[in-house]
Amino acid sequence: MKMDRISLLPNSILCDILSYLPTKEAVSTSILSSRWRHVWKELQVLDIDDTTSRPGLGWEARFASYVNAILARRNADYPIQKFRLTCYEYSERSLTILTWLDAVNGPYLQELYLCLEVACEIDLPEAILTSPSLKSLVLKHGEYFDCYEKFPNVYLPSLKNLELDGCVDPSKLLSGSPVLENLMLIVPNKDYGCYVYIPTIQMPRTLKRLIFEDNSTEDNNISHRVIDTPSLEYLYMKIIAKSKLHVSFSDFPNMVEAHLHIHHGRVEHVLWVPKLLVALRETKLLALKHCATECLFNGVTFEFPEFPRLLNLELDVACFNTDFLLNFLHNCHVLEDLVVHVLKSVVYCELYFHRSQFYVPAPPTMVSNCVTSHLKSFEFREYENSADEREFIEYLLQRGLVLKRVTIHLYYYLDQETKYDIVKELSAIPRGSTTCQLNFIDQKPVEHGMNSHSLYFLYCSLIKGVDKKMIILEP
Questions:
Q1: What is the rounded CA–CA span in Å between residue 418 and residue 428?
Q2: N or C: which end of the chain has fewer CB within 10 A?
Q3: Residues 6+ apart with CB under 8 A from 223
Q4: What is the rounded CA–CA span in Å between residue 393 and residue 376?
Q5: d(Cα 472, Cα 468) in Å, to the nearest integer?
C-alpha cells in the first residue's frame, strides 16, 4: 500500500527523493515495477562512485560501460544540474573521463564535484572553467588536474563555492571567481607526492567562509598570503611553515568563528600572529591550537586585544600559564564558555621555540567582568593538579558567580589514589555559584583497577558535609 501511494507521486517529486541516493541505488529502483522503470532517467543529480564496482577482474571496463550507459539512456530533456564523480585507481585514458565531463556540462550545470586519483592528467574542459551557471566546484586530488596552460582565462561569474585539494596554483581560479563566498584551499607539501611552489595567494575579498591549510612553504622560499576579506564570517587556518612566511590581512568585523593552527620553526617568523588576533577581536568563537598559542608568548610588548563579543574560547597550551589565562579573561567581557587543554605529552614549546619562559604581562588585580557575570561553563582537559592549575580552578570556583558547570578531565597518567585526592581537594573549595556542578572525568579508570563509580562511592564514604548532587564522576 505504501509503495502504491509513493508511485502516485509525480516524477518530479520521485526524482527529488532519488537525488539523495547514490546514482547506482537510484537506477536500481527501475526493477521495482513498470511505474519506476524510467523514473531515474529524469534525474538531474548524478552521484557516481567507482568504489562499488572494483571487485573482480575487468572492473574498470565494466565501470566505464556502466557510466556510459547511464549518460546515454537518461532523458536529455532534463539537463544535469549536479554531477559528482569519485574515481580511484582508474588507468583508462583521460579521454574517457573527459567524455563524461562533456556530456554533463551545459548551461544548467550548477554543481560539479570531482575526486579523481587516476593514472593520468585531466585537462578540464574550457567550457567548465568559463561556465556562467556553475555555482559550486570541488576538485579533490588536484595534482591530476592540468588546466591553466591551455586556458589562461578562467571566469566563473556565478561560482560561490570552491574547494581545491591538491598541487595546483589556485591563483587563476580565485581571480576568475568574482562572487566567491566559500573557499576550502588545501596546499600540500612536497612529501605529498607532488609540489608546486606558490609564492603568493590572494584570497578574494568577497569570501564569507575560508578553510585554508598551507603546508607548501619550504626553506629558502619566502611566501606571501593575503587575506583581505572584510566580509569573512568563518576562518579555519592551518599553516605549517618551514621558511619565512608573510601573512597580511584586513580586519574581520563580521567574524563569528575562528580556528587557528599555526606551526613555525622560528619565533621571528610568526610575529604576525598577535596582529591576526587583533584583527579577529570581533569573533564570537575563538579556538587556538597549541602552536598558535605559543606565538602569543613571544614579544614583551604584546597586548591582549579586547574581545567585546567573544562567547566561546578554546585554548590548547603545551605549558599551563595562569597569567596568560587571566589576561585573556580580563579582555573577554561576555565570555560564557571556556575550554583549556594542557597537552602534557606535547613538546612543541621546546621543539619549535626553544625557550624556557613565558613573556606575558602581569594580569590585572581586579576580577574580570566575564568571570563574575557571564562565565557559565569551564572545561579543563588533562588536569594534573600543579600549583598553577589548582590556583586557577580555585579562582574560577570562588569568583565565578554564575558558573553552572566545571568539568575536569583528570590526567590519565595519575594513579587512582592521586585522582581521589584531587577530587577531595577541589570539591572542598567554596563556590561562588550555588548552582555550580563539579564534574570529574577519569580518562582511563579501568586500567588502574578502579572505575569512576567505585571512585565516587569511595569519595562519598569519606567526604561529609558536601552536597553529592553537585559532584559527578564519569568514565
A1: 16
A2: N
A3: 198, 199, 200, 201, 216, 217, 241, 243, 244, 245, 246
A4: 14
A5: 8
DSSP 414: S
DSSP character for 307? B
Sign for the CA dihedral angle at 323, 328, 332, 336 comes to negative
DSSP string, 194-234: -----SEEE--TT-SEEEEEE----TT--EEEEE--TT--E
Q: Whole-angstrom Cα distance, residue 231 to residue 250? A: 10
Sheet holding 223-227: strands in order across? Answer: 200-202, 223-227, 245-249
- 294: nearest Cα among 324, 257, 252: 324
Helix/strand/coil for 111: strand
10-residue averages of pLDDT along the chain (475 residues):
74 93 92 91 93 67 88 94 85 75 92 82 83 94 58 86 84 92 87 67 95 76 87 94 81 96 71 88 94 69 83 91 88 95 63 48 81 96 92 95 95 89 93 93 57 48 47 56
Q: Cell numbers of 309, please?
A: 563579543
Beta bridge partners of 209: 182, 234
Distance of CA 249 to the CA centre of its chain: 20
Taken in order 52, 54, 58, 63, the sign of the CA dihedral is: positive
Other CB atoms within 10 Å distance of the CB of residue 160: 17
Q: Which amino acid is at 451?
A: N
Q: Residue 314 and residue 337: Cα distance in Å, rounded? A: 8
Buried b / exposed e along 83-122 (16+ C-beta atoms within 10 A): bbbbbeebeeebebbeebbebbbeeebbbbbbebebebeb
Distance CA 237, CA 265 (A): 17
Phi, psi of 205 (to 5 degrees): -70, -20
Distance CA 93, CA 82 (A): 24
User: What is the C-alpha separation between 323 and 361, in angstroms, rounded?
Assistant: 7
